[in-house]
Amino acid sequence: MDLPQHTNDNKNAPAPAVLPLSDAVQEALAIAKRGVDELLIESEFAQKLARAEKTGQPLRIKLGLDPTAPDLHLGHTVVLNKMRQLQNLGHTVIFLIGDFTSMIGDPSGRNITRPPLTRAQIEENAKTYFAQASLVLDAERTEIRYNSEWSDPLGARGMIELSAKYTVARILEREDFTKRFKAGTPISVHELLYPLMQGYDSVALRSDLELGGTDQKFNLLVGRELQKDYGQEPQCILTMPLLEGLDGVEKMSKSKGNYVGITEAPAAMFGKLMSISDTMMWRYLELLSFRPMSEIEQFRREVEQGRNPRDIKVLLGQEIVARFHSPKAAEEALADFNNRARGGIPDDIPEVMLAGAPLGIGQLLKQANLCASTSEGLRMVEQGGVRIDGATVSDKGLKVDPGTFVVQVGKRKFARVVLA
User: Sorted alphabetically, which Pfam families does this protein's record hold (predicted)?
Assistant: First the structure.
């Protein structure tokens, strides 16, 4: 591809006339703003929408993801959901796989240098990335790009020229860099290049809007500034909140065991969603559901007037399972959940945080205080007295993977185990 050329052509151009905002544009703006943390700059984005309506030229909307792990969870889909909403409005969405930037490693939110991935690791992870993202996006209307297309051809000379456009002082304004610098924690030179390379992606793609999590705000703003340097109209940026996990406290993460994977079995997915608190339920609805906000507000009023919050959680769980599996799977997951509920699992059971996954079933039962010893736990398995999420455990050699699940021993001992 032809690399973007540096120009100042747009810097002295007259300001375009302000376009009126039609009802359709205002509705599109409301859809774009639903559940967001920030939309910068809103007035500019409104004008971009108005121009797109007037010219019939869709906006170019970019989301970049580094394939640092092969599996996506519901936390990742918060921003993908927003992409789908914008896609449904007729705009061009670009799913950018950061195969080049993955080799640098995104330092966002980290207090140590992230080990760069190898090319082999990146390629392996990227194989499943878009397939999973397509469970949310309309794959046929999604532009898939890899940032090695323009980053590799830059070469040493191009990298130096790009680096000259930003000062170290500005890079160190970024909060995580500032904290590490003040603490004397090492910052590798290649990490300083990451925001520049992500920003250059916006130049190469002529992005109108870039999406990301709240932890990406600095990187997104760098892209906006670089576009000005290259004579392009600067992109607007839209940041989405980081979804809390099932514990309602920490960010959803596989490493913390508080996640719902989008390729998990329907029953497991539904059961996990039913375990969230009545308070957290509303945040999940706003960020994960495709229901209109007016309908969600109606649900809130009904709960305030006495409706059981469980009814709303069931609707949310079924919607998510149907999205990633099928409506039939959602109905079966509900039936399975109800069957297990009739088995006498109490509503208020202790929650136990464990580490060391994969953990042998005997050790898990002991550490969760469900059995006095590992040997007693294995005897209970032999006798068919151990259940995980309602399913009887028959294998004494079972190694339990990370996750959140209800463990039952006998008729009266229960624990919600969060295993990391």
Answer: S4, tRNA-synt_1b
When mean pLDDT is compared across 45-59, 107-121, 128-142, the lowest value belongs to 107-121
Give the Cα separation of 98 and 199 in Å (integer): 12
What does pTM read for this prediction? Answer: 0.71
The angle subtended at Cα 177 by Cα 171 and Cα 180, nearest 5°, is 150
Cβ–Cβ < 8 Å for 408, 392: no
What CATH homologous superfamily does 351-419 map to? RNA-binding S4 domain (3.10.290.10)
**Mean pLDDT, rounded, for 73-77:** 91
CA distance 153 to 148: 8
Q: Which residues carry a binding-site annotation for ATP?
A: 254
Name the residue ranges covered by the structural domains of the chain. Answer: 9-240, 266-342, 351-419
Question: Quick check: 83 pLDDT over 80?
Answer: yes
Q: How many whole angstroms separate alpha carbon 76 and alpha carbon 81?
A: 9
Place of tokens 């009802």: 23
From residue 250, alpha-carbon distances to 1, 222, 246, 255, 300 in Å are 42, 28, 8, 11, 24
What distances in angstroms separate CA 418 from CA 12, 341, 414, 415, one per listed residue? 58, 19, 13, 9
Are 318 and 270 a contacting pair, CB within 8 Å?
A: yes
- CA dist 366 and 378 (Å) reads 10
Q: How many CB atoms lie within 10 A of CB 64?
A: 25
Mean pLDDT of 207-217: 91
Q: Which CATH number fits domain 266-342: 3.30.70.3270, 1.10.240.10, 3.20.20.140, 1.10.10.10?
A: 1.10.240.10
Annotated binding-site ranges: 254
